[in-house]
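Bumping with the actual sequence this time:
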Amino acid sequence: MPRMNRLNQAFPGVDLRFQLISGRIGGPLVDVDLGMRFRTDDEIDARGVRVMPEILLPVCNRRYHEQLLQDAGSPHDDTIINMDDGERGWQDRFTAFAAHRRRAATTLSFSDYAIVVQAALLGQGVALGWLNVLSHWLADGALIPAEHELIVTQRRCCLVWPANRPMRPVVAALRDWIIEELRTDMIRVDQAYPDLRLAATLRDSGKR
């Protein structure tokens, strides 16, 4: 949504319709020109293009982070924001939680990832962030890394299109525009948080 003004400027007169999926993104494309999916390399065929690796990191807003630093307790007690789809306990995949420097004191669970993001933006806790989804808010500073650690999975964020319709030129142009927007965001995030070593992570992932 933060890109809508630029998208409308780049594609004047193009009407857009979004099919939004609650919970995990998956399933077949139904009556759409373009979709986003997470797929492994062997699942990507000629009707899909790799955008970036699936990269995860814990995120929160700056006010929440600063308030946590003022807490004299050790370990730091966090409110963990979950998407209620089996991702409970995600925080233990990150070193600070696994080493017990931070711990999940309370949890908030939602069935929709958009609400998970909204709760993190409002300073209600720490959420698991998908970098391709949250890059804009990280680049702008509305969200910050709760820890400077990235997890790269075996999956790729892909833009895919159905086999039952030819790709129209405007759809191809929109696909390329989205990819370029994300690449620009990755540069901005890398500049804002050099300790994440995002550029190196993306380079290493591209060599696999």
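The tokens above came from a reply further down the thread. DSSP finds seven helices and seven strands in the chain.
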